[in-house]
Amino acid sequence: MLNRVRCSAAAYNAHMSSSTREYMDAVEHLPQGATLVLQRLTWEDYERLVSDLTASRARLRVTYDHGRVEIMSPLNEHEGYARFIDALVRAFAEHGKLKLESFGGTTWRRHQYCNKASRETAAIT
Predict the structure, then answer these.
(1) Looking at the DSSP assignment, which residues form a beta bridge with residue 69?
(2) Under a CB-based contact definition with an 8 Å cutoff, are residues 66 and 40 in contact?
(3) CA 70 centroid distance within chain
(4) What is the pLDDT along the chain (125 residues), one digit of tens a residue?
(5) What pTM was computed for the model?
(6) Which of 63, 78, 96, 112 has the most crowded CB, counting CB atoms within 10 A?
(7) d(C-alpha 24, C-alpha 22), whole Å
(8) What pLDDT does 69 receive?
(9) CA-CA distance, 65 to 117, in Å (whole number)?
(10) Closest CA to 46 of 70, 13, 22, 30
(11) Phi, psi values for residue 37, rounded to 5°
């Protein structure tokens, strides 16, 4: 199975731009639970990288903050932590009679703001 995944990624990499190919090669070897940090990327580099990662169907979390990109390959246990935190926020909002808006897996793409990509997003208003 591992060889088949590498073959698919190699075939995919042949169609990418040379600037993202190096990043994709690093991402391809990223172990579960590890984080890859890329420095000095432009917003356009980030957009291209996210597009390439989306096309490769990689299960990754990607954030961008003023030229710094973090790519994380989450462990299965991260989902449990995410659900626990979600339950805490909901209980806090209910107890305080606060309106909670959940946005699910949202990517914020307004360049002038922090440019964070988030898996689960909520706002207390």
Answers:
(1) 38, 64
(2) no
(3) 8
(4) 333 333 334 443 444 455 667 888 888 888 988 999 999 999 888 888 888 888 877 778 888 998 999 999 888 888 888 889 999 999 999 999 999 888 776 666 765 554 444 555 555 55
(5) 0.61
(6) 63
(7) 5
(8) 92
(9) 9
(10) 70
(11) -110, 130
Residue 109 has which token pair?
Answer: 């793409």
| Ordered alpha helix ranges (H), the chain | 2-13, 18-28, 43-55, 77-95
The domain limits of the chain are 2-124
Tokens coding 4: 């088949």
8 A C-beta contact, residue 114 and residue 59: no
pLDDT at position 102 = 81
CB burial of residue 70 (10 Å; 0-12, 13-18, 19+): middle
Here the tokens at position 15 are: 């169609």
Considering only CA atoms, which of 105, 106, 111 is closest in space to residue 46? 111
Return the closest-CA partner of residue 16 out of 44, 57, 51: 51
